[in-house]
């Protein structure tokens, strides 16, 4: 069974994002809301999850499980996106409108992953 090119694109994006968690951990740790304990561990776990789920997306027998995992991951990291909007330091000096647009973008990414859940 051949998988569609856009699934490989999604997988590549998550794998690269996951690798970036290890290349530039400070960037991700900075956006984890202080309510969550052990931000270094959370960064490591989310980066590893992105890499693993990205790889699993490319295997036909695990694609739908990986897509559900991506959806769960996107829901789990949503507080970081909201924190970026509310906390000037966590927003990296980005314009507020860009930080606001990131919030509904999560819904688009969830919908994209949902396409591969069945």
The H/E string reads: HHHHH
Number-wise, the strands total 0
- What is the count of structural domains? 1
Major sheet description: none
Question: What do these coordinates show?
Answer:
The protein has 118 residues and is mostly helical. The protein has one domain (5-114). Helices cover 73% and strands 0% of the residues. The protein has 5 helices and no strands. Helix 1 (5-23) packs antiparallel against helix 3 (39-57). The longest helix is centred in the middle third of the chain and has 24 residues, at 63-86. It starts with a helix and ends with a helix.
From the structure above, extract its key features:
mainly alpha, 118 residues, 0% strand
At a glance:
Helix content is 73%, strand content 0%.
List the helices and strands and how they pair.
Blueprint: H1 5-23, H2 25-29, H3 39-57, H4 63-86, H5 96-114
Helix pairs in contact: 1-3, 3-4, 4-5
